[in-house]
Specification:
29% helix; 8 helices; pyruvate-formate lyase- activating enzyme; alpha/beta; single chain; 289 residues
Length: 289
């Protein structure tokens, strides 16, 4: 069983202590986000877990807990974009984030810290050329600290468009997707970083870009030293190659304040849920109604 922790919220940055308490207790309760009255108990015992997959924009608060999961296999997705605080309200300054990324890589190895550059969209400040500039800048800084970068383009869910109404943005057109991807691939390759796409419809294999698996059974097999045969997750987007996993997070609980995030419908609700969080709860947050 693969545990995703979590696509729905930033557990390493915000709920690390709660997560470790659940690991020590050996289980967690998870509510179906579409039917909150449906609650499932999920084992977190080492013998039942193939790997934890952590998702974060700030893994620093979790560093002190790494010793608590040393008997588990795991890796991190760590998102680093160029966006400022008009877009990522509460994410720490990028130089701090990059230094923390490097520190984690030194602790657990570059194989286990994946850099995410997503989602890509255009504004007046972050246009085509600026994305190329910042992608190269970050690639250079992380060149010996990660083996893989996964990138994606913004999916315009209705709640994303609502939350992003404070800025003027547009999605890249198909020729821009292909051109930007081509240059991203060349840049990443020059810094010995393997580039994969996340749920992008366009076939980019001619640029050396494969469709990535954020929940990657091959990487988990490598890390764990045992063959993982998890099927593709049919509940994800059409062009997603992720293996099946169980997500233990809850929507509307992340206070990173990223206006493009599909996991928050309302930042004020997320703030309240974070404030009301009970660290001793068996469930992160059971959101009803």
């Amino acid at each position: 069983m693969i545990i995703s922790a979590s696509r729905r919220t930033d557990i390493p940055a915000l709920y690390g202590k709660w997560f470790i308490k659940r690991v020590k207790e050996g289980f967690v309760l998870v509510a179906n986000p579409f039917n909150p009255s449906q609650i499932t108990q999920v084992s977190l015992k080492a013998e039942d877990i193939d790997a934890f997959v952590f998702w974060t924009k700030n893994g620093m608060p979790f560093f002190d807990y790494l010793k608590e999961i040393k008997e588990y296999s795991y890796y991190f997705h760590w998102t680093i974009t160029p966006y400022d605080r008009t877009i990522e309200k509460n994410v720490p300054q990028k130089n701090i984030i990059i230094d923390s990324f490097k520190r984690l890589s030194d602790i657990i190895s570059p194989d286990k810290v994946i850099w995410r550059y997503d989602p890509v969209f255009f504004t007046q400040k972050y246009d085509y050329s600026k994305h190329l500039f910042y992608f190269e800048k970050i690639s250079k800084l992380l060149s010996t600290y990660t083996k893989t970068c996964i990138y994606s383009f913004l999916t315009p869910y209705k709640k994303c468009e609502k939350n992003m109404s404070s800025i003027k943005f547009r999605l890249p057109e198909d020729p821009e997707i292909e051109s930007l991807s081509k240059y991203f691939s060349e840049i990443a390759s020059s810094y010995n970083i393997s580039l994969s796409s996340c749920a992008i419809k366009t076939d980019l294999t001619k640029y050396g870009i494969k469709r990535g698996s954020c929940i990657d059974k091959d990487l988990i097999s490598k890390i764990s030293g045992k063959e993982i045969n998890a099927p593709r997750d049919k509940n994800q987007r059409e062009f997603c190659n992720c293996a099946k996993s169980i997500d233990i997070g809850s929507y509307n609980t992340c206070i990173n304040g990223c206006i493009y995030c599909y996991a928050n419908s309302n930042y004020n609700i997320a703030q309240k849920n974070y404030k009301d969080h009970n660290i001793n709860s068996e469930i992160l947050k059971n959101l009803r109604g």
